[in-house]
Write a structure and sequence with these properties.
Strand order of the largest sheet: 2-3-1-9-8-10
CATH architecture of the domain at 2-224: 4-Layer Sandwich
Structural class: alpha+beta
CATH superfamily of the domain at 2-224: Aminohydrolase, N-terminal nucleophile (Ntn) domain
CATH topology of the domain at 2-224: Glutamine Phosphoribosylpyrophosphate, subunit 1, domain 1
CATH class of the domain at 2-224: Alpha Beta
Low-confidence stretches: none
Radius of gyration: 24 Å
Strand content: 15-25%
Number of helices: 27
Helix content: 40-55%
Length: about 625
């Protein structure tokens, strides 16, 4: 993994300041501590921080140019099919000076133009500058694994791997965007293309944008170059599907083992990560596989026993570390400070600790991200099965049920029944009726739009409900799935996966200069799985059916039948214990009262601390936002 930053001045007579460009690049050194490279030509400047993975020699330093220095590129990520592309390009007369995957990009652009993006198999964000034609192309991989922010303001165009890279540039205006804040409180993250700062955006997955460096106003909006398809469904038997899935999974894992530095795998002991370990064991000696897991002293959140069972089964070189809450409190401020945007998924804390632990032994790790999204593994797929019952009830009865559920006993355990019931009922608002995608995002988020309305001071008016959830509607208009399971898969893939799971893994790993690869998010694999008949993924209340069938010959029965647990954090208990004074001091401050009503904050705190209500998600999202404001001066 790496990081890059770029700067284009609208005023062609105004050169890029090399000291400011270097300061911007220095904010990304955690992403690429091994090397750095710069290109400055009049009004255009591009910089790169490198984490060396493939061809770790100086030949891999970026930016990398073509033969006549007319095209350059910077890359954050890996191109898995670079060797195949390289052979094809060499046959056509292109010459290479390095063994890095990045160099393939400039020559692929020479051959195919912007269509070269369709030829790539990998995870990436990139910036390619066609110097002769004054054309800058920025792009992201099909699932958006690698981040890319951009902004047009004060006569400049800036782009970077992380939002904090803009702050050293005096042209950047760090003004809070309230519309994005409302979305953050609803989703627990700021959904793409929105950004927490005004006039900033995130490039969507599978998209590119062409910037005219001599005429910035001539720049076009981002365009899609790839889209997951759900129809037509494949006419295929279960046995044929199982064989093809095994073949594609094996290829996906194999191509992600390419590395010139030590490599391992995250192992929770669940179906997804265990399947990856099993496939790795088919490709190399089990004793050479390094597996990593962290556990917690809080037993309802601990998965280390399951991971040890799988590690023993495959005889891996297993590394484990048990953490207590104090360690999470220690890293919490550092994580929030380096997030760039507020991000309320508390599982970033254990993810960070896992990456920190793994980095002591490896530079690359494989993970199981994407398995639940593609194979309908989350609990909300199950919840949706019962939605027809709720949709038939009058709204007054649903309100009564919601009030009744609010009086259920409170538990600090991970995903207890009371928590599930309350969140299930929270999804049934009038505007979300018979809309599984909207319900799903309400289920996953912290604040529903009706509770948000009373939270803000009178001079701040939250957007209407349809505007807060407009991102959900926009994505669904693009994909047009025809059944609820596919609708939720599309929703998870384009929103929760893209803006929560992948952001969490990217930031947590990059803060530790660790690269994480996701075999389940292989483009060919996803294209196949998405066009499978829905009943091969979910039938009745059974989920991930075909994946389980495929993994049965590879894994012990306990890994197949094990109930999904998730990477939870005991924040509800912490708020009543070791974090009590901290959250009170933070959320009762004058700064918090600049935006939020003190009496509403007090209500949330008192209800939770007295064990009357479970407001863990709401309090956590507000706490992260207030700490983020403190670190970023907003």
């Amino acid at each position: 993994m790496c990081g890059f930053v770029g700067w284009v001045n609208l005023d062609l007579e105004k050169p890029v300041d090399p000291l400011i460009l270097k300061a911007m690049n220095n904010t990304l050194r955690h992403r690429g501590p091994d090397d750095e490279g710069y290109f400055i030509s009049d009004n255009v400047g591009i910089a790169h921080s490198r984490l060396s993975i493939i061809d770790i020699s100086a030949n891999g330093r970026q930016p990398i140019f073509n033969e006549d220095q007319s095209v350059l590129v910077v890359l954050n990520g890996e191109i898995y099919n670079y060797r195949t592309l390289k052979e094809e390009l060499i046959k056509e007369g292109h010459s290479f000076f390095s063994e890095t995957d990045t160099e393939v990009l400039v020559h692929a652009y020479e051959k195919w133009g912007v269509r070269f993006l369709n030829e790539l198999d990998g995870m990436f964000s990139l910036a390619l500058y066609d110097i002769r034609n004054n054309k800058l192309i920025i792009a992201k991989d099909p699932f958006g694994k690698k981040p890319l922010y951009y902004t047009f303001q004060n006569n400049v165009f800036l782009f970077a791997s992380e939002l904090t890279a803009f702050t050293p540039n005096p042209r950047f205006n760090q003004a809070l965007d309230y519309s994005s804040l409302f979305k953050y409180l609803a989703y627990d993250y700021v959904p793409t293309p929105h950004c927490i700062f005004k006039d900033c955006q995130k490039l969507p997955a599978a998209s590119y944008m062409v910037v005219n460096t001599n005429n910035l106003p001539d720049t076009k909006k981002p365009e899609k170059y790839w889209q997951l398809q759900y129809e037509p469904k494949l006419a295929i038997t279960v046995e044929e599907a199982r064989e093809e899935l095994f073949r594609l999974l094996m290829l996906a894992v194999k191509k992600r083992l390419i590395s010139d530095v030590p490599l391992g795998v995250f192992l929770s002991g669940g179906l997804d990560s265990s399947t990856i370990v099993a496939l790795m064991a088919e490709l190399q000696k089990s004793g050479s596989i390094k597996t990593f897991n962290i556990g917690f002293t809080e037993k309802s959140f601990d998965e280390s026993t399951y991971a040890k069972q799988i590690a023993h089964y495959f005889d891996t070189n297993h590394f484990e570390k048990i953490f207590n809450p104090e360690k999470m409190f220690e890293v919490f401020p550092k994580i929030v400070e380096n997030l760039g945007e507020p991000f309320a998924d508390a599982s970033i804390l254990p993810t960070y600790l896992l990456c920190e632990f793994a980095k002591k032994h490896v530079t690359v790790a494989l993970g199981g991200d994407g398995g639940d999204e593609l194979f309908a593994g989350y609990d909300t797929f199950l919840a949706d099965r019962f939605s027809f019952l709720m949709d038939s009830l009058p709204s007054n009865l649903i309100k009564w049920l919601r009030l009744l559920a609010g009086n259920l006993p409170i538990s600090d355990k991970n995903m207890d029944m009371g928590f599930k019931i309350n969140h299930f009922l929270k999804g049934y608002l009038p505007f979300s009726k018979k809309c599984p995608e909207l319900r799903n995002n309400i289920w996953l988020g912290s604040f529903s739009s009706d509770t948000m309305r009373s939270l803000f001071n009178d001079d701040i008016t939250p957007d209407p409900q349809p505007m807060i959830y407009e991102t959900t509607r926009c994505y669904m208009q693009e994909t047009q799935p025809t059944n609820n399971v596919d609708k939720l898969i599309s929703n998870f893939t384009q929103l929760y996966l893209h803006d929560d799971i992948l952001v969490k893994v990217d930031r947590a790993s990059m803060m530790n200069s660790l690269e994480v690869r996701a075999p389940f998010l292989d483009k060919n694999l996803a294209e196949f799985v998405n066009r499978l008949p829905v009943n091969m993924k979910m039938r009745g209340v059974k989920r991930k059916l075909l994946l389980k069938e495929t993994a049965k010959p590879l894994l012990p029965k306990t890994a197949i039948d094990r109930k999904k647990k998730g990477f939870g954090v005991p924040i509800a208990k912490w708020f009543r214990g070791p974090l009590k004074e901290f959250i009170q001091d933070t959320l009762r401050s004058e700064k918090t009262n600049e935006i939020f009503k003190a009496n509403q904050i007090e209500r949330l705190l008192n209800d939770h601390l007295s064990n009357k209500k479970d407001h863990r998600k709401e309090i956590w999202s507000l706490l992260v936002f207030e700490l983020w404001r403190k670190y970023h001066g907003c």
